[in-house]
Structure formats: structure tokens, C-alpha cells
Amino acid sequence: MATSSSFAQIWSGVQVEYGDRKLTSDAPHSPPPTPIVHRTSMPKTHPQLQAGYKWQIVWRNVIGFIVLHSIAIYGLYLGLCGYVQIKTILFMIVVAACSALGITVGAHRLWAHRCYSARLPMRVLLAVFQTLAFQNHIYEWVRDHRVHHKFTDTDADPHNSSRGFFFSHMGWLMVRKHPDVSSKGGAVEMKDLEADPVVMWQKKHYLWLVPLVTFLIPSFIPYWLWQERFWYAFAVVGVTRYMISLHFTWLVNSAAHIWGTKPYDKNITPTENPTVALLAFGEGWHNYHHAFPWDYKAAELGNYRLNFSTAFIDGCARLGLAYNLKTANASLVEKRSRRTGDGTKRHHHQHHNHHHVEGGVWGWGDEDMAEDDKRVAQVID
Ligand code: ST9
Ligand code: ZN
Ligand code: ZN
């Protein structure tokens, strides 16, 4: 493997290697070798951005986030200084938990990665929860997320973490996307989402659903049921709750692509980050998740500690609402971790210099998924 280190790369702390990563294994028009970026420290600028790509700031979003953060700080003040009723705070926690499940169990593990199947009532509930979270409609969320897994840390990745903490955290939502996102991302499979009437209905009606479901209903309930001041409820349950869950979600794209161990694949940026797992309802076991994106647990852990989303899916499976749960069995995980892990799982003496990068699979059903994985994956009916 060739390693190139130009002055700009050294200066920006980014080393670009041209690996043998194959993004579409048997497609006739396979893309050229994709640079694999290994960060040595936080990059100030991305090498490819210096080669002519220009930021195009979307001021509407910048201003929107400034306003939302200001209201959220006011809401925090109201909450912490005892201006709102305890019932309102408890209600905020419930709403935040539901919206988190809409993202983790719904948009992420069900719709983006097809880790399991869900019956209609569960899909409807998850779509309502996902709307509470206001992180774009399911279709757009899934498209960006599949593209993130398929083209991780390249220009085609919507929140390419080699562009730094801020960009991958929230900066990507305030600039126009790199042209590679739509040109390469356009080839990613979305037919399964198009076939789901729940997803398509939400997409069609998203513009009026968001103000109603994300902000108005959660603010009116405390006002109607226990006479909280409407504006207080709006600031605390509406906006503060929303901004906190956004930051917790964004940490998966930023912190869990920077800090932590890589027991399953040391050649990719995603890490095992328990703090993020705690804050993001079990989605911080991100090295495992990028290695086995189709695993409904999104972690190797056999218990529910720091993974409430897995407990929720198992509960729904017991009720018959979720089925076809896919998970990597212990021997598959073991094999992968011996082959590409950083040694933090176990077998410290098993280090090797083999730099083959696996991954580039968005989930269950991806044509690039290894036959071996498909064969030995456990499917729980
Ligand atoms: C938000 C999302 O915050 C957060 C996602 C986080 C994901 C984390 C995942 C981690 C795991 C789960 C963790 C859960 C934790 C839960 C914890 C809870 C406590 N492929 O986008 P446009 C094409 S959202 C293919 O407008 P611009 C397409 O043709 C926050 N093609 O690009 C498209 O047209 P159409 C709230 C693509 O103009 C066209 O390009 N929302 C793709 O560059 C234009 O697309 C906001 O803030 C693709 N991936 O604008 C809104 N993408 O759609 C922010 C695009 O018609 N968004 N195309 O098909 C925007 O305003 C804009 O998207 C933009 C870019 C300004 C950022
Ligand atoms: Zn990731
Ligand atoms: Zn994922």
C-alpha cells in the first residue's frame, strides 16, 4: 500500500493512504481506489478541500441552530433553577427517550440496516417516535446513513469525520453537501424504503408533521394536563429536549469516530466509546457496528447495560412485533477481531500488519456483504 504525505497532509495531521478497499465488489464500474484517511491528530483542513472544493454555508441553518441553542440554554436555566414543575421535567425525559428509540430502534437498526423486521404497528409507533426526534424524515436519514457506512470518511460520506470534530458533529448540516455525496450515494439501494408505506407517508407529510409532533404536541400536553406555562413547556420539552438529543446523536458521528478502542477493525475510524453508548441509547459501540452493521444489537455485549435499544427490540420480539433479528455469532466476531482488531478485545500477541480494509457495507441485503457473514449470521425468528 502506498502512503503519501504531502506538506498539507502533515500540516493538517492527516495521512492519506490508497488502499485496496473495494466499494462495489463486482460492479463493472467500480470506483477508483478510495483514500483511507488515518488521523494522527485533529485535522484543521481536509486535503481534498484545499484542492478546489469550496464551502457553501447555508445561513438559514446556521441561524436556525443559533436560535435553537439560545432557546435551549434558556430552557436549561428554567429547568435547573426550578421554574418548571417536576412533572414537566419527567415528561421531557419520557419524550426524549421515545425520540431516541425512534432513531436507534427505528431509523437506524430497522430502516437503515435492516437488522430485523417489524410488523405494521411497531413501524407506525417508531415512525411517530422518529418524527419526535426531528432528524429529517426516515427516508433522508436512512439515505445519508447508508451512504455514511458505504463510503465512511471519504468525501462521499455526508459527515466525513476526516474533516474534523465540528464538521462531523454538526457542521455538515450547515453547508451544502460535497458533490460526491449525491453522485456516489445515488447508487445506494433505497427500494426497500420506497416499498414501506409508513416511510413514504411520513416523507410526504413531513413538513407539517414536524412542527406538530416535534414541538406543538409535546408543549401542549404539560399545558393542558398540569397547567405548565406554555412557553416554559415549549422551551424545555420542545427545544431543550430536542437540542440535547441532537448533540447526543451527533456524538456518534464525531466522538465515536475519534476516541476509543478498535477491537474489531483497527483500519477504520469508528471506535468503541462507552460514554457515547450511554448517552446515545447503546449506539456508541461504533467499531463493532461498522464491522457488523446488520447486527440488531449494534454491539457485541450480551447484556443490556448501556444498550437500552437492544432490550427494547428483544421486548418487541417477545410480543411478536419484531422478528428476523440478525446477530453475529461469537465465532464470527472472534474471527474478525483476530484478523483486523487492534488487540484490545484479547489476543494481544495476535498483532499483524495486514492492512486490508473490510466494511463498506450498509447493512443486511447489501450486495457487497461477505458470503461468510451471511452464512454464519444468526437469525432469530
Ligand atoms: C440530523 C441528522 O441531525 C442526524 C443524523 C445522525 C446520524 C447518526 C447515526 C448514528 C447512529 C444512530 C445514533 C442514535 C442516537 C440517538 C440518541 C438519542 C438521545 N445520497 O440534502 P440536500 C442528493 S438532522 C444520495 O438538500 P444540499 C439528492 O438528490 C437535524 N443522494 O443537499 C437530494 O435531493 P432529494 C435537522 C443525496 O443542498 C439532493 O442531493 N435537520 C444524498 O447540499 C439535495 O440534498 C436539519 O438541520 C445522499 N446521501 O443541502 C436539516 N444526499 O432530497 C439539515 C443528498 O430531493 N439539512 N442527495 O432527493 C439541510 O438543510 C441540507 O441537507 C444541507 C445540505 C444544507 C445540509
Ligand atoms: Zn459511523
Ligand atoms: Zn449505522
Automatic annotation (TrEMBL):
One of its GO terms (cellular component) is endoplasmic reticulum membrane. The chain crosses the membrane at residues 57-77, 89-112, 206-225, 231-252. It is a multi-pass membrane protein. Residues 334-344 have a biased composition (Basic and acidic residues). Its cofactor is Fe(2+). It is found in: Membrane. This is Fatty acid desaturase domain-containing protein.
